[in-house]
């Protein structure tokens, strides 16, 4: 598919079923630059069912991150090291549910290189610009789209919702967590740049409406064992009683602030904003307490050790050693090929040295066993995994 040329797919199969034509457009570099380098691909996809189009998300326009499978739409994954983009043959669970609820999907938006950066300048196809401050970061790894809610929300001033882990399943994702469970949702505030409806700041009611449409088990992943059944909970209706006085909804609630979170590498100005929010909630009738979890100070180490084994195995070799039953087989096969081509590692290093580090750290683990920090880090991760 050439950049800048629309493509029409006739008789395409998605989830083993024939679907209507999907219109796909890869913007030229000039076109994309005019829109802050937002796009991986523009699309026009919606259900043709009258019942679906009258659903709870009728009229809403959505976009998804470029590591979420949309059948027939190439996934660039924020990288240029694969010879040809991977084209999934099925929609992610969350995409299917959005369409069933009446939403209209208009694109896949650029993400960081293999989703391995917290900023928005490692995508080789173009640095994604902050929508309200050109030249500044929009946050990553999603560069402002669905995923990585904390940084994009903080950087861009958008409203975000972080569902309980396992509540929303996507079944596809970046090399960090293939397959991944959606643990973040971003909602658009500016020109459809961020995943969600194209509107001005969204209310909690609209967040709840979208969550109701996409939450719940789909039977593919045991990380959803404790989630409710799909469609079993209507988060929107449960909030209707509070819509005229939202403060009533939080009265009597108890919120804990993690003491260590305000002490570890945090800008004092951010800490002050957290304290201001705590004061607001207290004034609204919420009990705000402080708790301590000393292990939080090891969060960076634990995250590094836990994530990078899977990152390396999957992104470099197409292996899913920890969760062999649930993954995108075709994508893994493609991932197992790119490192065999000369110059690809150097190409990766050029755009995102952090990704190179992440991919090779597990490869060299056997040679580093003498490093007590390495062994201790893995020890902490495995003890946590066993609930000890």
Automatic annotation (TrEMBL):
Residues 48-145, 147-298 form the Amidase domain. It comes from the Eukaryota. Gene3D superfamilies: Amidase signature (AS) domain (3.90.1300.10). Coiled coil: none annotated. GO terms for molecular function: catalytic activity. This is Amidase signature domain-containing protein. It comes from Mycena maculata.
């Amino acid at each position: 598919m050439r950049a800048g040329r629309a493509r029409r797919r006739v008789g395409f199969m998605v989830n083993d079923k024939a679907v209507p034509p999907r219109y796909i457009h890869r913007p030229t570099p000039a076109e994309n630059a005019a829109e802050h380098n937002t796009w991986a691909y523009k699309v026009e996809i919606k259900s043709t069912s009258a019942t679906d189009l009258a659903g709870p998300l009728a009229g809403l326009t959505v976009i998804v991150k470029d590591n979420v499978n949309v059948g027939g739409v190439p996934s660039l994954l924020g990288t240029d090291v694969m010879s040809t983009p991977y084209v999934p043959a099925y929609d992610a669970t969350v995409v299917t549910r959005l369409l069933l609820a009446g939403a209209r999907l208009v694109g896949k938006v650029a993400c960081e290189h293999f989703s391995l950066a917290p900023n928005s300048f490692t995508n080789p196809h173009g640095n994604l610009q902050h929508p309200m401050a050109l030249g500044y970061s929009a946050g990553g790894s999603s560069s402002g789209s669905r995923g990585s809610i904390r940084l994009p929300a903080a950087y861009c001033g958008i409203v975000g919702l972080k569902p309980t882990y396992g509540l929303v399943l996507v079944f596809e994702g970046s090399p960090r967590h293939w397959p991944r469970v959606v643990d973040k949702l971003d909602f658009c505030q500016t020109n459809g740049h961020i995943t969600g409806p194209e509107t001005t700041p969204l209310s909690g009611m609209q967040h709840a409406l979208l969550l109701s449409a996409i939450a719940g088990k789909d039977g593919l992943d045991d990380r959803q064992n404790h989630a409710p059944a799909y469609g079993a909970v209507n988060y929107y209706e449960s909030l209707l009683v509070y819509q005229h006085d939202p403060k009533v909804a939080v009265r009597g609630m108890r919120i804990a602030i993690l003491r260590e979170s305000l002490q570890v590498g945090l800008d004092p100005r951010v800490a002050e904003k957290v304290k201001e929010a705590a004061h607001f909630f207290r004034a609204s009738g919420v009990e705000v307490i402080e708790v301590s979890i000393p292990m939080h100070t090891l969060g960076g180490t634990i995250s590094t050790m836990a994530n990078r084994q899977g990152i390396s195995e999957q992104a470099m070799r197409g292996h899913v050693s920890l969760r062999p039953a649930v993954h995108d087989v075709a994508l893994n096969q493609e991932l197992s090929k790119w490192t065999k081509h000369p110059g690809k590692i150097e190409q990766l290093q050029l755009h995102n040295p952090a990704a190179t580090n992440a991919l090779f750290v597990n490869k060299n683990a056997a040679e580093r066993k003498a490093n007590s920090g390495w062994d201790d880090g893995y020890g902490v991760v495995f003890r946590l995994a066993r609930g000890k």
